[in-house]
Amino acid sequence: LEENIGGAKDIFNAVIKRNPALVYQLPCFWNVQLSDHTRSEQCYTEVSDLKVIHWNSPKKLRVKNKHVEFFRNLYLTFLEYDGNLLRRELFGCANLPSLSSGQFQQALEELDEDDPCYDFRRQSLIRHRVHLFFLQYEFPAMTDAADVTLVAQLSMDRLQMLEAICKHWIGPISLALYMSDAEAQQFLRYAQASEVLRSRRNIAYHIVYKEGQFYPVNFLRNIALKNAQTPYVFLTDIDFLPMYGLYDYLRTTILQLELPHRKAALIVPAFETLHYRLTFPKSKAELLSMLDMGSLYTFRYHVWPQGHAPTDYAKWRTATVPYRVEWQPHFEPYVVVRHDCPLYDQRFVGFGWNKVSHVMELDAQEYEFLVLPNAFIIHMPHAPSFDISKFRLSSSYRDCLETLREEFHQDLSRKYGAAALKYLTAERSL
Question: What is the pTM of this model?
Fold first, then answer.
C-alpha cells in the first residue's frame, strides 16, 4: 500500500462502500472540494459558514467551476495573510523555543519599558515561527568526514544572489530566509521557476517568519547553523561569491590540516568590488592582478579596516601555506569551523557586532585562526540595508549597541573567567 498510495485510496473506498457504518459522515461544509467531479455547488450555495475548502492540488485553481474566480481570490488572499495573526497555543504541542511559556512570560515582565534599549531586548525574546526545510532536501546517506556546508541568511532583497552562489558552490547549503507569509509564497514561485535552484537538492531553505522591528540576524544564523548536516560549516554572508572550486579546496584542506583533531577556524580572506558586473577571477593570481589594477579591494578597507586587517593581506599575497593570526578587537573574518562551534549571540539584532561577538567567543574557547593561502570570497555591491541606515542615522541605536556590547563583555568574563578580561582591556585601549 505504501508504494501505491492511489491504489490504497481505491481499496479504502471499496471497503467503505461495502461497510458504510465504519465512517462517520461530516456535513459537506467540512470538506468542500472544487474538482470537476463533485457536487460541491450544492453545498456552498446553501451554507454560508464553510469550514474547510479542499486545496490539495494547484489544479483546483483551474477547474471548470463557474465560481472558481471567487475561490481563487479567497485562496490567494489566504496566502497573503500574516500568519502571526493566526497564532495560538495548541494542546499537546511542545514549545519549539528554548524558553518555556513561564520563563518567557517572566523574561517579558523583567523588561523595563522605560529602558532606552527596550526594543532591542524585546526583539531578542520574540519566538519566531520557523518552517525548517521549506523545500525538498536530500539528506546525505553517508557523511563525508570533511564535508562542509555553506551557511548564510538573507531576506527578500538578497534573493537574486542565490543562483550566482549556486554556480560558485556545488556543496550543501543551509539558508535561513527572513520573510513574511506572502514573501514565502513569492520565494516558492521563484524557486520553482528557476532552473538553477530546481536542479539542486542539497540546499536547505529554512523560513523564519517576520516579526518585530529589527532584523534578527544572529537568530537566523543560528537556525541555518544548527540545521546544517555536515561535520563542518562555512560561515559566510549571502552577498559574497566564493571562488570557483572553494568547496573542494576546503574539503581537501580540512583533511590536510587534520582539523578533526584540533580546534581551529579557517579564515577565507574577503575582498570586494564596487562593480555590479565583474569578470570573476579564476585564480589567486588573477585576483591579485585585479587588486593591483583597482577593480578589487580588500573588504571594507575604506570604511572598517579593523574588521579584516588581522587577516594580514600583505602576507596573504605571497603565502603558499596556511598561517596563523591572532585575534584583535573588531575582528570579524568569514570562517570554516566544526559544526559544534559556539552559536551566535542573539542579543545582537540589526546592524553591528553580530559577527564580532561570535569571533570573540571562538577566541575565548581557544580556537586558533588559520588564514587559507589559496582561498577567497568577493563581496558584491548592493543597496544599504534598512538596519545599517538606522545605525548611521540614529544616535540612540548606536548607544544601545554600545550598551549591549558592554553587557556581552561582562557575560563573557563570567563565562570564561580571567582569560576574557583581555577583550575588555583591548577595547578600552583603542
Answer: 0.81
